Each structure stands twice: as C-alpha cells, then as structure tokens.
C-alpha cells in the first residue's frame, strides 16, 4: 500500500499513527505528495485533491476516517474502532471533534500563509479560533474518557494537539487545559507518536 501524504498534515499523521499502532507500518509506503503540484497526480487518485490518500489493490481510499477504519480491519490485535456500544460512539465522537479542531486550525494556517496580510479576514480567523477554544474546552471536560485503551478517538485527539504544537505553539493550550496536557504528555511517549513528529 502507498500513502500519499504530507509530513505536516495532521490528518496524514493520524493515519500514520494508526499504521504504527496496528503494526502495519512496514506495509504502508509513505509518498510525500503536494496538493499544489499538478504533476503529483493527486487529483487523479482523489478528485478532491486532498491528502491523505491510501492506494490499495482495489483502488484509492480517502479521507482519513475511511483510511483509518480500513487499516483497522487488517490486523488481529485490539481494534482502534470499537465494534459496538458506547465505546464505539465515544471513540467516533472524539475522532469527529479532533477532526473538526484540525480543520479549523488548517483553515487559519492557510489564511495567514497564503493570503497577503492586508487581505486576511480577521473576523473569520477569530471564528476558527473560537471553534478550537471550544473544542479544547470540551476535550478538557471529557479528558477522563481518554484514559484506557488506545482508540481512533485518542489518536485523533493526539494528532490534533500535535498540530497545535507544530503550527501554533505560542497559543499555550496546556496552561488552560491541564488534564488534557497531562494525558497528551503520556500519549506523546508512544513510539507511534514519536516516529511521526514533523519538524516545522
């Protein structure tokens, strides 16, 4: 399998962490791919021209929730996406919250790096920041749910917080979210997290 990715994409990092946690990392070849370069062939594999994309024997898979769930079917260990019951819906809810936080953070990143300063929409940026603050507050309130087995929800949360550290380190989210910070510090010691860290 080939994973079309950017080392700076939090969604691609989520997939890479899943590959490590499921023991599939040696079966997934990572291929750095630009969404800006038409020669990359990305749009031929994903009409949305977004990463990550996983090339499989039956065609490409996108986006990260689909790829992660597929990888979770390829191993015999404990499943990262619980099969049923409250554990399943809790894990998927965490994944959705983390994905939403990453979406908002990426939109801010694009706005401040791709637009000239005089054309940046400050009110729009602030709306995205508000989503991130509310997401962090909810994560802090529910931080006890992150304890226990690793799931797609905990991997999503770790990927989202890692992206804040990568691109918005000056925001200081740890100071206002101590329980979340303590959980993240423990998760950040996992080999799957360490080996997927991108350098800004």
Query: Could you give the distance between the termini?
Result: 27 Å
Find the structural class using helix and strand composition: alpha+beta
3D shape: globular
Strand fraction: 5-15%
Identify low-pLDDT runs: none
| Total of DSSP H or I helical runs spanning 4+ residues | 9
User: What is the strand arrangement across the widest sheet?
Assistant: 2-1-3-4
Series of secondary-structure elements, N-terminal to C-terminal: EHEHEEHHHHHHH
Radius of gyration: 17 Å
Mean model confidence by pLDDT: 95
Let me know the largest β-sheet: 4 strands, mixed
Bin the helical content: 40-55%
Total number of beta strands: 4
Index terms:
4-stranded mixed β-sheet; single chain; 200 residues; 4 strands
Describe the structure.
This protein has 200 residues and is of the alpha+beta class. The chain has helices spanning 10-21, 42-45, 64-72, 85-114, 122-141, 152-167, 173-176, 178-187, 191-194; strands at residues 2-5, 29-32, 53-56, 59-61. The chain has a four-stranded mixed β-sheet. Helix 1 links the parallel strand 1 and strand 2 (29-32). The longest helix is centred in the middle third of the chain and has 30 residues, at 85-114.
SSE blueprint and pairings:
Blueprint: E1 2-5, H1 10-21, E2 29-32, H2 42-45, E3 53-56, E4 59-61, H3 64-72, H4 85-114, H5 122-141, H6 152-167, H7 173-176, H8 178-187, H9 191-194
Parallel strand pairs: 1-2
Antiparallel strand pairs: 1-3, 3-4
Helix pairs in contact: 1-3, 1-6, 4-5, 4-6
